[in-house]
C-alpha cells in the first residue's frame, strides 16, 4: 500500500495539471468555440461533413444487383452457408498476440463513437437468409424451409433512384471522435444525463441513473427471456446501444465516472466557474482522452502497426466513414470476442458470476447487461477482462456470436457472421479483388494467394473455398476475403481500410486535441494529454489500484498481474437457451377466445339494444295513443271495440291491421304499431253495407267487405267464422249506438274480391276522371283517342265519381291540411257536400282555362274571403300569401316579409289608408301587381305544377292522362331507352358531379398505384410487400380525398348561409 499511494497522488497531480488552463480560458468572459454534439460545423467549408445522418463514404464502386439499390450477391452462396464453412471451428483458442478481452470489447466503444449504420430504416425492408436443411442450430429437426430474418439498413432517401446515384446508407452517429459514446449526439439527450451541478453527470453511488426519463435507448428483446422488458430498467448513458452486454455497460460507467472525476478536480481548481464551464471543460478533456487512446493506443494494438504521425489539420479531407470500414473491415474485431467474461478481484481470485457460473456468458446476458452490472462490481469486470485473453485472430467466431447472437422475438438467435456478409451485400460492396484494387493493393490471382499459410495447413478449407465460389476470384465477398487473409492481425486489405479511416478522421477534425491552431489546448496540455492511457482512466475512475492491472491493458504479457486460470471455451460454460420463435398467441388463448366471443356478440348486442330502443319507443307511443284514446273516449262517452285481422289490399298483398270501432261514428284502421292507415267516416250515411263471403268447401279464411259512401271498400280477412260472427255483432251494436243500420248480405268470395273497389281500383277511376275532364275541356290532340273502360259505360262511371278533399289535394300534389287546399276545395265544392263532383271539377277547369280574367280574380278573391262578407282584410290576404309560402316550402320569405309585401301592395295601389278591400279594390291591386302575384304562384314547389297556371296544367294533364296510341306499339328496348334518357336528363347535374367525383377518386388511386408499382422501385417496397402496398397506398389516397368531402356534409348550414348572403349581396348590387 505504501507504494500505491504515491503513484495515485502522481496521477492526481497529472489530472489537475490537465485542467489547469491558460489565463485566457480561465476568464469566464473570454469566448471559445464549443463543439456541437451532432457533428455539424466542424468543417467550416462543408459544415455537414461528419454530422449525424450523413451518408457513408464510398471508396469503391457500388455493386448492387441492378446497379441502383437491389442487394448485391444474388449469384453468391448463402450467407449462413459461408458462415458455417469459414467461421465455425474450435472455440477457446487464445490470441496469438496476447490481446486481452478488454481490447475486444473496447472495440465496441470505438464503433459506438464513430458509426451506427446497421439499424433498419422505415419502412422496414425485410429479407431472408436461407438456412440449410438440418442446420445444427436453426433446423435440428430437418424440417427445411427455414430462414433467418435480415433487415436492410436505413439510407438516404434521395439516393437509390438511378445508376448515377446508387443507394447510400447513412451513419446515425457522428464520424468524429467527439465523445458521442459518452454524451450522445443530441443536446436534449445529454441534458437528461446532466445534474447541472458543478459540471457533473447524474449518477447514484457511482452508477448511472436508470432510464426513468424514457430516453430512446435501444431496448431489444432479451433472447433468454423471450420478451421485451421495461426500458426504464436500462442505464441512462450516451450511446443507445450501451446496454447490449455487460462489457459495454462497464465502459459506459467508467467513462461517465471519468467525466465526473475531471469535473470535480476542475471545480476544486476553479471554484468560481459556472456549471456549464465546468461541464464543457471536463467534456473537452474526455474527448481528448478518447482521441488519444483510440488513435495511439487501441488502433496500433488492434492492427499491430501504428498510424502515420499527425501533421496538422487538413480541412480538405473528408472524415466520412466508408462502407468498407463500417460493414467489413472493422468487423474483424468480432473474431476477438470471447464467449464469456471472467471476474476477478485485487487478490487474483476469480469469482463466480451471477447464477454460480465461472464467467458471465454473453448469450445469457444480451440486452440484460444492466441487470448483471447491478450485481457485479465494475472493478471485477475490468480486472477480469484485463487478465483474460481474447479469442484467436482468425476467421472463426465464437459460438455466442456465431450461433447465439440476439435477434427479434420471432427468431431469437442469429448468426453474426451471416449478418456481416449480408450487410456488405446490403451496402452494395464490390467483390474482394475490386476492393483490393481501389485501396492500392494488387489483385490476387489465385485463391491460395489470399492466405497461403492458412490454406497450406488446411487444404480442405481451400477446396471448399474454391468450390463454394465456383472458382470465381472476382465474386468473393469482401468480408469473407478479408477475414481469410488475416494471420494474427487484420490482413492487408482490412489494415489499409482501417488506417485510411482513422487517419482521415484525425486529420479532418478541426477540434482534434493535437491541433494547436484551434486554441483549445496549449502545447504543454497537448503533451500531457498524449500521456493519458486507458489504464489512467480506469485507475482514476474506479477503486482499482495501479498495480491491480497491467499498464498496457490491451495486452497481457508474462509478469503482468493475475494470469487467467484457463482459456474460456463455450463447451465448459452453461449452455445458451435454444433458438425459439416467439409465439404471440401463447398464453393468450383464453383472452383470444373471449375477445372473439365478445366481438361476435357485439353486433348481436347492438341489434338487441336497437331492438329494445325501438320496442321502448313503440311502447311509449302506444301508451300515449291509449291515453289519447281514453281521453277521446271519455269525451264521446262511448265504448271502443278492437279487432286484429288482415286487410286484403289487392290480389298479391295482405297486411295485418287493427280495426277500431269509434268512439265517434268512424272506423279506424291502424297497423301493428298503432300508426293510422285510414279512417272510414260514417257521418254522411244512415246505413252501412257489409258483405260476408259464403263458406264453401275451400279452406280459405272468411272475408268481410265494408262499403261506405264516398270511400273505397275495406276488405277484411278474419281467422274463422266464429270470429267474423263476433265482429259483426260488435259492428251492429256500434252502428246501433250511433243510430245507423247494418245492411248485411252474403256473396261468393270470388265475387267480393272481383267487385271490391280497392285503393288501387279507386286510383284508376280517378285517373279516368281527370282524363275525361281534360279531354272535354281541351279536346284530343291529332292521332290520339280516348281510352275506354272495359267494365262499364265510361260516362256513367265518371259522372258518379266524386273527389274527397284528400284526393283533391293528392291531385294538386299538396297536403290535405294545407290552407290553400282547403280554400280551393271550398270554392270548387259549390254545393257544400264535402265532395267535388265531376261537373263541379269540370266547371272549375273550364273557368281557369277559358274563363275571363275577372272570373278568375273573383275566385281568388272568394278564396281570400274567409267569412264571406264581401270584403277581405289584410289578415285574410296575409293568410292566403302565407299558404302559398308554405306550399313553396321555402324559408327565404318570412312573416315580416309577407307583411311588408302586403303593405307595399296596398301602398302602390293607393290603398294604404284602407284596412279592407272590396272586389273592385282587389281588381285594382291585381291589375297593378299581376306579374308579381303570378310569379309567386309559379314558384310554389309544393305542387307538381301550379293549379292556377292553365297553360302548364294543360300540358301536364294532356301528356299524363292522354296516352297516344303509337306508344303501345313501341318495342320494349326503345321504351327502356326512353326511360334511361329521361333519367339522365332529369339528373344530369347530379350525374355530372358524381362523374367528377369518381374521376378524381379513380385518378388518385391510379396515380398512387402506378407510383408504388413502377415509379418507386428504389424503395424496394414492392419487392417486400408485393402488389399489396400499391393497392393500400392507392386506396389510402382515395379515402383521404373522400374523408375531406365529409366536411361538406358538416358545413351544410354554413353553405346555405353563404349562399343566401351571396344572393343578398347580388340583390343589393
Automatic annotation (TrEMBL):
Keywords: Heme, Iron, Membrane, Metal-binding, Oxidoreductase, Peroxidase, Signal, Transmembrane, Transmembrane helix. The keyword Calcium does not apply. Heme b binds at residue 334. The keyword Ribosomal protein does not apply. GO terms for molecular function: calcium ion binding; peroxidase activity. This is EF-hand domain-containing protein. Residues 1-26 form the signal peptide. InterPro entries: DUOX_peroxidase, EF_Hand_1_Ca_BS, EF_hand_dom, Haem_peroxidase_animal. The chain crosses the membrane at residues 591-614, 991-1011, 1023-1048. Residues 816-851, 852-887 form the EF-hand domain. It holds the Pfam family EF-hand_1. PANTHER family: NAD(P)H OXIDASE (H2O2-FORMING), OXIDASE/PEROXIDASE.
Amino acid at each position: 500500500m505504501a507504494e500505491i499511494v504515491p503513484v495515485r497522488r502522481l496521477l492526481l497531480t497529472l489530472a489537475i495539471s490537465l485542467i489547469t488552463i491558460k489565463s485566457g480560458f480561465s476568464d469566464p468572459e473570454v469566448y471559445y468555440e464549443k463543439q456541437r454534439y451532432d457533428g455539424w460545423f466542424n468543417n467550416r467549408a462543408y459544415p455537414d461533413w461528419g454530422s449525424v445522418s450523413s451518408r457513408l463514404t464510398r471508396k469503391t464502386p457500388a455493386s448492387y444487383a441492378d446497379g441502383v439499390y437491389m442487394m448485391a450477391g444474388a449469384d453468391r452462396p448463402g450467407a449462413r452457408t459461408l458462415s458455417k464453412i469459414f467461421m465455425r471451428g474450435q472455440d477457446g483458442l487464445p490470441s496469438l498476440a496476447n490481446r486481452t478481452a478488454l481490447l475486444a470489447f473496447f472495440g465496441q466503444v470505438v464503433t459506438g463513437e464513430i458509426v451506427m449504420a446497421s439499424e433498419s430504416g422505415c419502412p422496414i425492408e425485410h429479407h431472408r437468409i436461407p438456412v440449410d436443411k438440418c442446420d445444427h442450430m436453426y433446423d435440428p429437426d430437418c424440417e427445411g424451409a427455414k430462414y433467418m430474418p435480415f433487415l436492410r439498413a436505413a439510407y438516404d432517401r434521395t439516393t437509390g433512384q438511378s445508376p448515377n446515384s446508387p443507394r447510400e446508407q447513412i451513419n446515425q452517429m457522428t464520424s468524429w471522435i467527439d465523445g458521442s459514446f459518452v454524451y450522445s449526439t443530441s443536446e436534449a439527450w445529454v441534458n437528461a444525463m446532466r445534474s447541472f451541478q458543478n459540471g457533473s453527470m447524474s449518477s447514484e453511488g457511482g452508477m448511472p441513473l436508470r432510464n426513468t426519463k424514457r430516453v430512446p435507448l435501444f431496448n431489444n428483446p432479451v433472447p433468454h427471456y423471450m420478451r421485451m422488458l421495461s426500458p426504464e430498467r436500462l442505464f441512462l448513458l450516451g450511446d443507445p446501444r450501451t446496454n447490449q452486454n455487460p462489457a459495454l455497460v462497464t465502459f459506459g460507467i467508467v467513462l461517465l465516472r471519468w467525466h465526473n472525476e475531471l469535473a470535480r478536480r476542475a471545480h476544486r481548481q476553479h471554484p468560481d466557474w459556472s456549471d456549464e464551464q465546468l461541464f464543457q471543460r471536463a467534456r473537452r478533456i474526455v474527448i481528448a482522452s478518447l482521441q488519444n487512446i483510440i488513435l495511439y493506443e487501441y488502433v496500433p494494438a488492434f492492427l499491430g502497426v501504428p498510424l502515420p504521425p499527425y501533421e496538422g489539420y487538413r480541412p480538405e479531407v473528408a472524415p466520412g466513414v466508408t462502407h468498407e470500414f463500417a460493414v467489413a473491415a472493422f468487423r474483424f474485431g468480432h473474431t476477438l470476442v470471447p464467449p464469456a467474461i471472467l471476474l476477478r478481484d485485487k487478490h487474483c481470485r476469480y469469482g463466480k458470476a451471477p447464477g454460480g457460473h465461472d464467467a458471465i456468458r454473453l448469450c445469457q446476458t444480451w440486452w440484460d447487461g444492466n441487470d448483471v452490472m447491478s450485481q457485479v462490481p465494475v472493478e471485477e469486470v475490468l480486472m477480469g477482462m484485463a487478465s483474460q485473453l481474447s479469442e484467436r485472430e482468425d476467421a472463426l467466431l465464437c459460438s455466442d456470436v456465431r450461433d447465439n447472437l440476439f435477434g427479434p422475438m420471432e427468431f431469437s438467435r442469429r448468426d453474426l457472421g451471416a449478418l456481416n456478409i449480408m450487410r456488405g451485400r446490403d451496402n452494395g460492396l464490390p467483390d474482394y479483388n475490386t476492393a483490393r484494387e481501389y485501396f492500392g493493393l494488387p489483385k490476387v490471382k489465385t485463391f491460395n494467394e489470399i492466405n497461403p499459410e492458412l490454406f497450406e495447413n488446411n487444404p480442405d478449407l481451400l477446396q471448399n473455398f474454391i468450390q463454394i465460389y465456383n472458382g470465381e476470384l472476382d465474386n468473393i465477398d469482401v468480408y469473407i476475403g478479408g477475414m481469410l487473409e488475416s494471420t494474427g492481425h487484420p490482413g492487408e486489405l482490412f489494415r489499409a481500410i482501417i488506417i485510411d479511416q482513422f487517419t482521415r478522421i484525425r486529420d479532418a477534425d478541426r477540434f482534434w486535441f493535437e491541433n494547436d491552431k484551434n486554441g483549445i489546448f496549449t502545447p504543454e496540455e497537448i503533451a500531457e494529454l498524449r500521456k493519458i492511457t486507458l489504464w489512467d482512466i480506469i485507475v482514476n475512475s474506479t477503486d482499482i489500484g495501479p498495480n491491480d492491472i497491467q499498464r498496457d491493458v490491451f495486452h497481457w504479457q508474462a509478469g503482468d498481474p493475475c494470469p487467467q486460470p484457463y482459456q474460456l471455451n463455450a463447451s465448459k460454460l452453461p449452455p445458451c437457451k435454444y433458438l425459439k420463435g416467439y409465439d404471440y398467441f401463447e398464453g393468450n388463448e383464453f383472452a383470444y377466445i373471449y375477445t372473439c366471443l365478445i366481438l361476435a356478440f357485439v353486433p348481436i348486442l347492438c341489434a338487441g339494444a336497437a331492438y329494445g330502443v325501438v320496442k321502448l319507443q313503440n311502447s311509449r307511443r302506444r301508451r300515449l295513443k291509449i291515453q289519447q284514446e281514453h281521453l277521446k273516449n271519455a269525451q264521446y262517452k262511448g265504448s271502443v271495440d278492437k279487432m286484429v285481422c288482415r286487410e286484403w289490399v289487392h290480389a298479391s298483398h295482405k297486411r295485418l291491421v287493427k280495426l277500431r270501432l269509434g268512439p265517434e261514428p268512424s272506423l279506424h284502421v291502424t297497423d301493428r304499431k298503432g300508426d293510422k292507415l285510414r279512417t272510414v267516416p260514417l257521418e254522411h250515411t244512415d246505413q252501412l253495407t257489409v258483405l260476408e263471403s259464403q263458406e264453401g268447401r275451400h279452406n280459405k279464411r272468411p272475408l268481410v267487405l265494408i262499403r261506405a259512401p264516398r270511400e273505397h271498400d275495406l276488405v277484411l280477412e278474419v281467422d274463422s267464422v266464429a270470429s267474423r260472427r263476433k265482429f259483426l255483432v260488435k259492428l251492429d251494436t256500434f252502428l246501433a249506438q250511433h243510430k245507423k243500420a247494418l245492411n248485411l248480405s252474403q256473396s261468393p268470395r270470388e265475387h267480393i274480391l272481383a267487385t271490391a273497389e280497392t285503393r288501387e281500383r279507386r286510383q284508376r277511376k280517378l285517373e279516368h276522371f281527370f282524363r275525361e275532364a281534360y279531354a272535354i275541356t281541351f279536346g284530343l290532340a291529332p292521332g290520339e283517342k280516348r281510352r275506354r273502360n272495359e267494365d262499364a259505360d265510361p260516362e256513367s262511371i265518371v259522372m258518379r265519381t266524386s273527389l274527397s278533399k284528400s284526393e283533391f289535394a293528392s291531385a294538386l300534389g299538396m297536403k290535405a291540411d294545407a290552407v290553400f287546399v282547403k280554400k280551393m276545395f271550398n270554392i270548387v265544392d259549390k254545393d257544400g257536400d264535402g265532395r267535388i263532383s265531376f261537373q263541379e271539377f269540370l266547371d272549375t277547369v273550364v273557368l281557369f282555362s277559358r274563363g275571363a280574367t275577372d272570373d278568375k280574380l273573383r275566385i281568388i278573391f272568394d278564396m281570400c274571403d274567409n267569412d264571406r262578407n264581401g270584403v277581405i282584410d289584410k289578415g285574410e290576404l296575409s293568410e292566403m300569401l302565407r299558404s302559398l309560402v308554405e306550399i313553396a316550402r321555402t324559408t327565404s320569405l318570412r312573416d315580416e316579409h309577407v307583411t311588408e309585401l302586403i303593405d307595399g301592395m296596398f301602398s302602390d295601389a293607393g290603398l294604404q289608408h284602407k284596412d279592407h278591400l272590396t272586389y273592385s279594390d282587389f281588381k285594382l291591386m291585381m291589375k297593378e301587381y299581376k306579374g308579381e302575384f303570378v310569379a309567386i304562384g309559379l314558384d310554389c314547389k309544393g305542387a307538381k305544377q301550379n293549379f292556377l297556371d292553365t297553360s302548364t296544367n294543360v300540358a301536364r294533364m294532356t301528356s299524363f292522362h292522354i296516352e297516344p296510341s303509337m306508344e303501345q306499339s313501341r318495342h320494349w328496348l326503345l321504351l327502356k331507352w326512353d326511360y334511361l334518357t329521361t333519367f339522365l336528363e332529369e339528373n344530369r347535374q347530379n350525374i355530372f358531379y358524381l362523374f367528377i367525383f369518381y374521376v378524381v377518386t379513380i385518378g388518385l388511386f391510379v396515380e398512387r398505384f402506378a407510383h408504388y408499382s413502377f415509379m418507386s422501385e428504389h424503395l424496394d417496397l414492392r419487392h417486400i410487400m408485393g402488389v399489396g402496398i400499391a393497392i393500400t397506398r392507392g386506396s389510402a389516397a382515395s379515402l383521404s380525398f373522400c374523408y375531406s368531402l365529409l366536411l361538406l356534409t358538416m358545413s351544410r348550414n354554413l353553405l346555405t348561409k353563404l349562399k343566401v348572403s351571396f344572393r343578398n349581396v347580388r340583390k343589393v348590387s
